[in-house]
Amino acid sequence: MNKKFSTLLASVLLVGSVGAFAQTGVAPATFKTGDVLFLKNEGKGATSDHVQGTTYLKVTKDGGILPVFEPDFTTKANIDSLSWIVTVTENAGSKKDYSFVNVANKNLKLSFNAPTKSAEVSANSWQDLHNTTDSAKVSTADRKWSIDPNANSNGYSLSYTFQGKDGLTVADSIVAIGVFRNGNATPTLDGVDGAYMVRIAKTELTAATNDGIKVAVKKIEDADTSCSDYTSWSFESTEDALKKLVNIKYSELNLPVIQSTNVPGLANFQVVPVTYDTNTGAWDKVENPTGDEIMFSFLPASQIGLENPEYFTIDTARYDIAGVHQDDVYAYGLDTDTIITDATAIGSLKNGLRVFSLMREVGREDSVIFRPASIVEYDGAATYKYAVKTNPGTGIVSQVPGTYSYTTGEAVLGTAKLEDTELVSTVFAQSSRKEGKLAPYAFEAPVYPEIAEGYYFFQSTNKVTADKYIVNSLCGTATNNYREFVDEVSADNSYNVWVVEGEGKDMTIKNRYTGEDFSLILFEAGEGLYTTGKLDTFKIEAIEDIKKGGVDYYQIEAPEYKKFALSLVNGIGENIYVTTVADSVLGVKVDDASLLLYPTVKETKKYGVNDELVAETYTFKTKDGKVLTRNAKGQLIIDEEEGAYPVIFAFKNAGNGEYFAVYNVLTGTMASQTAETVWYLNAQATDNYMQYVSGVGCPEGQDRFTLEAPAAPKYLTVAPGHYTIKTDGREDMLTMGADSAAIFRRITSDLKSDYNKESFALWIDTAKFDAGETPLNVPTYFIMKGAAYEEDTLAGNFLGAYRTDSVMFVEAKRVATKDTLVIASTEKALKNDAVKPYQFKFPFVDGEEGAVYVQNENNKYLRIINEYVTLTDKEEEAIAVNVVTTDTPTDNEEIATSEVTVIAQDGAVRIANADGKKVVITNILGQTVANTVITSSDATIAAPQGVVVVAVEGEEAVKAIVK
Question: Residue 254: what pLDDT?
Fold first, then answer.
């Protein structure tokens, strides 16, 4: 939820004394199932070399158990590893048995495996004891323990019975556990000194009874009175340890850059470690914290980056609640620092109003007790009825962890009520706490802004960089994270754009170009203001219309349709173009835009956030098919072959429609981009030739270019129908020869028997249904001979296949609304690029009317060589034609085959003069639709609509279009 900052920030309670904590032992007789205990060994031994003081049973990381000296009680996790949950059961002898499970690892029970040897405890030999007893090893047994008073100490023995190997029905031995340290060979756990856990005996039982166990244990103790203490155990509740207090150090906060609390009003701030002198009032920020700092000020997110920021502070304004509470009890609020103008003021205890130390209860690690260094005290004689004084007490725990006794009048944050409204307020009494409740608070997630996912500019509100935009820049340095503040930004430069994704703590802000994080996360810093906590406070400006694909690098749309001249922009004049100057070497000339470059995509790279940006590199040819390349001197030239020095470049956006022509594109992090060598196309002024020059980082000073393309060609648009394609100025027309080759013929007297009007009728049909999806909206078509629709399928002979000497018609079909062709002879489906040779467009030879060229989608033109139609890349070799509408062929017209006549009709084929001959009729896919012997001189055979092939015995097969 988007919380708003109110003018009066909610207040906090300053409350008085809290009682001390005591540690007390717990007798086994009082154990209840579910009690949580420390298991302590009080053994002292004969000398301190063997054991030294109290040890606690602690679970190890690998699931073992080790007694440790002076364990760390400062965190709940450590306490849990030392804590054991007891289960109490009654055995058959009406006595109690006990089992223990570790709090940190509920799968770990206090249980050891069977002993393998007896302990030697005679002669006071500690070394023998160590050598003859087993080091304790954890087992998975559900061990039930006997706890009995130790005869020679105030503690207890922990023991269990063990079933003998002879399988007797009664236990025949007793095992007691203890703690033992052998000289200075001290085991450690996480750097803390420990001791050996040992089983002290394998002693014969006189009876399998509780009394028998006691006797057996006593035998162990009596064997050497000096050893008695190491089997002496005591038990302590963990409750007091969990309530102890510990100071929070800066290194222990582990906070994000911006933090909030559940103290109303204390939201979205930066924790700043400070020094503060309670005697002089001197306050200062710690510029290079060590992590041991325990005094802090809280800098509101809205103040980050300001020259004289205001901090959260105990407000001196008071709210009289005397009508509800004691007369000397008042509520005070949290506000920002409007009193202290000198950040390093000395002699003012008001500085302490913005200084807090933090304590936490060990058992509630996420809780925090806030203690201000100064307090506002009621003073009836003062002008404003208050005085600022040092908060009594130290705010420092005397031991870690330890109890903390509050001094009379000392204050920490708590809660109180003002009339019927519950507040967090400052409540203070002269002598003792009158009202309010100690409420350990907690750090919480910050108040995150509600920013829609999208694209944004970030505009600084900081005094030094006010109204400037922060951008990534190749001209930046590692010191400033490769960022600069600029006056103007553009969405056409992805270094300028920041992408917001996700929400709340999961919100990310990344540079659109590199995908690198802006910083951490955004936090609300006031109405319409945001901060990351590391940089300045910002306003954000949404970008409504964002382009994808070629943004930073010019992506030539449909490069197969493009040609352009390169114009140099370098301040020395206008209309300067890259062209040939001598021996095919490229240089620059004024007003000479004759060199047109035809690009071909070399490589396409995706980069940026979500890979939605594209950088393309290109190679180039000229109109006559020559290649842009380099010679051995590094000069750019026009040559027949690419050779050993290819020219490849991309056009990187330099702003204002200008581009750097670069050999390599940059798509990595800012650090990698500023370190990578980039090769720029530059004009060598001395000898006037074009070459690559290297640059690293900032591209300033490199030559810039514009791309000037001639007017795009215009294309003929036709509706689906029958047309003739006739050579311009002649009567030759395109048709399908006997071998299915594409040829140009004309109707003449000597050819009339082979070619009539219908021979040249071609069906032209739309190849792409949505012209908007076609590059540059260029309409493309299929050119067919003998076309027909069969339901939703267009079938016929499609122009486009190629053999070594001619373009061919091939029998195929095309499903309506799809660009897929299925070749009849192979049943192979052609898709995508494989269909391009069959898709044709008709660019006008000149202007917007008249003759056209026939050009396929691979940009190859039809031309005529030896009456056959072939392909060429060169426009000047293409044949100019006129596309003219014509009548529908074979509309119930006769097709003569010798004296046999085939007549196409509606839904049938009529065959005359074929009496007694076999007739086979197939469709365009080669499927037989009729196979019969004609029994009359005039027969009619049913046939499907569309193109059919009629083969009469002894005659050449002919095609007919059935209506």
Answer: 72
